Amino acid sequence: MPRPETLAPIADVVVFELPSDDFVPTSAAAAAPSALPVELRVTPTPPTGEGRRQAAAAAAAAAPQARVRGRDRARRTSRPAWSERRAARAAELLHVDEDAQPVRHARPRLLTRRIAVVAGLTAGAALLMGSAAMTAMMLPPATDAGPDAAVTMTAVQPQKVEQLPVPEVSQTPPAADLCALPDVVAALQTGNDEGAIVAAGGGEAFRAAVVDGRASCVDLGDSSRIWTVVDKIRAANPIDYRPSGLVLPDGVRNIEGGALRADAASALASLVTAARDAGVGEIALESGFRSYETQQATYGRHFAERGEGADQVSARPGYSEHQLGLGADVVACAGACGTLDQLAATAQGQWVADHAWEHGWIVRYLDGKTPVTGYTAEPWHLRFIGPELARAYHDGGWTSLEEFFALDPAPDYAG
Ligand SMILES: [Zn+2]
Questions:
Q1: Residue 244 C-alpha to ligand 1 middle, in angstroms?
Q2: Catalytic site residues?
Q3: Which of 66-70, 116-120, 176-180 has the lowest mean pLDDT?
């Protein structure tokens, strides 16, 4: 079907002189249906070269009686009435065709298709460029200007995002040294360890300051402080250190008559009372303060029995928390009291593990921490560090005092 926009000027219209029912079209294009009357049908754009000559010859053979007048302007004008009517009719039909719905929309549709194709190509190109950018970001940077240099330059270009200005992040200024706080200094001077920690902002703030080196007046080796650390590589200072103010804890069943530092004694009484009030049962103090001399005798006895194996069950003199007055071995009682080893299996033992921190105590030697603490699990051995530090220890999920203060592990004695 010839497209309307390819219609030849009216002068080129091929007119069959004697249309008849016997007319046989010579091509599929000529046979195609047409809205035009037979006499106004338009020949399709003829093929070129040999094809055109063959078509003309075939047309002549099939319709020898037809005379082609399209190119003979003189003869056409010799019959003006007939030609003018045909021209008018053709012009009218052509005009109608031009405005016909399919024609009117043909170009917009074509244009739309072209736009769609262009858009598709553009999108494809964008994807290719994006893919190239991703590939370039994953590839190592070019190290020389070899043959791939041009490709690399093109591919790296989308990385301009890295050239965006980096927003300035204001850094939090480091906190001042705890010892610049007058309240901390005052508490330390009066031996009020717990008060110093409170003045420092609490247990965690105190711990963080120590770990960060912002506590120049805090000495973890000072045996008189509740934050002191004694283990197999950190001896008491002096090694025969003896705390002052040892007292017997009030209201606590005391099997050996052990004493504790006053603050620790008060805290143990609080713990025992709380357990009783919770219906857990009675907790008794098995062993409290042990002097350097006492520890010499105790360790000497174990050493005589076990040799070096004594270190597995007894601290050497000068290396025991009991010498600080801050260590307490507790047992569970129900009428009679159990042994140290039996505590863990009792309700009191479970309660101690869960609630001792609320009274300033921690279970110092936990199962699995031997490489750090140097001791196998001792669920009965409590260490007083004060309510503030104990809360920070508990809330932080710490399992050893060495790690709490970021100290080296102490699996064994140095020599
Ligand atoms: Zn102990």
A1: 19
A2: 378
A3: 66-70
